[in-house]
Amino acid sequence: MNNATWTVEFSGLGKLGKAALLLNDKPKTGQSANTFWVKTGEGDTAKWTIKNAGEGRGNFAARIAAQVPPPPAISTDRQEYISGEPIKVTFANGTKNPKDWVGLYRSDMIPGSVAAPDWAYVSGTRTAGEGLPGGTITFTSTLPSGDYFARFFKDDGYGQLAQHAFKILPAPSVAPAKPEFEEGETLVVNFAHGPANAKDWIAVYKPETDPAKLPSLAWAYVGGSQTAGEALAKGTVSLPNKLAVGQYVIRYFDNDTYKQLSEAAFKVKDSTAPVITLKGQAVVTVDAGSEYVDAGATATDKVDGDLTSFIAVNNPVDTSKP
């Protein structure tokens, strides 16, 4: 046999994306001798001709190579976020449908039964745009703390292509033990959900003060003193109160820097009563039936100044009665 015609059928490819037949005129399969077939021509005109046909034998080898396309995938740039931080979601190997979309769900939420707390089409907005097989979407909404999934769906539906788990942690917080303190009263401050560095610190400022430019009015590390101690994410510090009456803010900073984690307002209230001074004599004698004119009084306060105009007179003198 000097010539042969063959047909190759591919079956069962399933999700295989590409398949090809690789031919070799120097097969190494089995125990046959070297090179019994010689290829001539290319493409549709290719022919394989047997060498040494008189020997009555030959061999042929066919190799099939198939490429499986990678499955759809989704991931986040980090595994943990503090509530309020942007979340970058990267998706790949999608269907190129403009209405493929990505949704962020709490782990206990069932897509389709509840709305996604945040979502976007693959174009990055809530209006279908370009049908992208891959890309990155940044979500900026503030989500409550908890366990979440980023889910990749196809064609405006709930046919899930891929998912990826991540966490949202509570944002750091700081708060005074009460909204108002008396002058000289120790300032008690609570903090929580911090990064737990020994040099995280808490300080008091006037609201308009830039911490990087002016010193604080009182401060302490999270361990409770001005020497770095225990690394706490949650706790209470007490600060000395030498503050004048007025409005203040407590600021919570990260690791000996001015990177602010949280802040809260409080007030030092005026606890000293105004001073009232009566005018005229301490003891006054008035004849019955005569006219009496009150000499008046003045009132002052160390914070509010002159309060005389706020003085009210009750039970005026009735000179008609002895």
What is the number of domains? 4
What is the CATH fold-level name of the largest domain? Immunoglobulin-like
Biggest beta sheet summary = 5 strands, mixed
- Outline: elongated
**Count of β-strands:** 23
Q: How would you classify the quaternary structure?
A: single chain
Number of helices: 0
Describe this structure in a few short sentences.
By secondary structure, this protein is an all-beta fold. The chain contains no helices and 23 strands.
Structural notes for this entry:
- The protein has 322 residues and is mainly beta.
- It folds into four domains: 18-67, no CATH class; 73-169, Macroglobulin (MG2) domain (Immunoglobulin-like); 173-269, Macroglobulin (MG2) domain (Immunoglobulin-like, Sandwich); 275-310, no CATH class.
- It is 0% helix and 39% strand.
- The protein has no helices and 23 strands.
- It has strands spanning 18-23, 37-40, 47-50, 62-67, 73-76, 80-82, 87-92, 101-106, 118-121, 135-139, 146-154, 159-169, 173-176, 180-182, 187-192, 201-205, 218-221, 235-239, 246-253, 260-269, 275-278, 297-301, 305-306.
- A five-stranded mixed beta sheet has the order 6-12-11-8-9, with no helix packed on it. Strands 14-20-19-16-17 form a five-stranded mixed beta sheet, with no helix packed on it.
- Strand 11 (146-154) and strand 12 (159-169) form a beta hairpin.
- It starts with 17 loop residues before the first strand and ends in a 16-residue tail after the last strand.
- The relative contact order is 0.10.
- Residues 29-33 have low confidence and may be disordered.
